[in-house]
Specification:
The structure holds two protein chains of two kinds. Chain A is mainly β. Chain A contains no helices and eleven strands. In chain A, strands 2, 4, 5, 6, 9, 10 and 11 form a seven-stranded mixed β-sheet that branches. In chain A, β5 and β6 form a beta hairpin. The radius of gyration of chain A is 13 Å and the shape is globular. Chain B is mainly β. Helix content of chain B is 0%, strand content 56%. Chain B is built from no helices and eleven strands. In chain B, β9 and β10 form a beta hairpin. The chains are: A mainly beta, B mainly beta. At the A-B interface, β5, β9 and β10 of A face β5 and β10 of B.
């Protein structure tokens, strides 16, 4: 299957700082990338959907000014958590999909553990 | 709206079969998936089934779909300790949306 990487795998930051998380599709062109948030022992909650070259579509309740998403190329999407606070601490997972895939498969990155002190 | 439900926990003995169940509410689902998540890791697609299928088998994995009852199950034969993980079912509407709706996840514990 296709490979999706995330960087960093974990980050600890102070409250009020901004953190950027990168999501890369390594061996295919991802026309669509998704960002999820997962709290401990809970399911994945979709935060936003981004298509290359266009603005991201955010799910209800997700602040677009706080979670900035940039999908500048077919292999890279970034999520920036601006002015992070302890309640933003979570496991952030991205996934990538391509229109060439027949069954809507999303390939998931390994996740980024964000801890805000 | 969309809602996908799973039981939270399942324990089985090594060598037994595991059956993880999932119910969904949206009858327009096109694809249904099973993902595996090991601690601290992302999701690994185990298998998927198209909504016009009843069953799909892939080595130790068997997926059963009852579209009338909106019930999906994953059977793992000869369960091993390496199968211990959280298993998520997910549904997709297909088309250009490509969005997945995940269940709450079932924590499978395999006892020696």
């Amino acid at each position: 299957g296709a490979v999706v990487s995330q960087h960093p795998s974990w980050v600890i930051c102070k409250s009020g700082t901004s953190v950027k998380i990168e999501c890369r599709s390594l061996d295919f062109q991802a026309t669509t990338m998704f960002w999820y948030r997962q709290f401990p022992k809970q399911s994945l909650m979709l935060m936003a959907t981004s298509n290359e070259g266009s603005k991201a579509t955010y799910e209800q309740g997700v602040e677009k000014d706080k979670f900035l998403i940039n999908h500048a190329s077919l292999t890279l999407s970034t999520l920036t958590v601006t002015s992070a606070h302890p309640e933003d601490s979570s496991f952030y997972i991205c996934s990538a999909s391509s229109v060439s895939r027949l069954y809507n498969e999303q390939f998931f990155g390994p996740g980024t553990r964000l801890t805000v002190l | 709206g969309e809602d996908v439900e799973q039981s939270l926990f399942l324990s089985v003995r090594e060598g037994d079969s595991s059956v993880i169940n999932c119910t969904y509410t949206d009858s327009s689902s096109t694809y249904l998936y099973w993902y595996k998540q090991e601690p601290g890791a992302g999701l690994q697609l185990l298998t998927y089934i198209f909504s016009n299928m009843d069953m799909k088998q892939d080595q130790r994995l068997t997926v059963l779909l009852n579209k009338k009852d909106k019930h999906l199950s994953l059977r793992i034969a000869d369960t091993q300790t390496g199968d211990s993980a959280i298993y998520f079912c997910a549904e997709s509407m297909g088309g250009s949306a490509r969005q997945l709706t995940f269940g709450s996840g079932t924590q499978l514990t395999v006892l020696p």
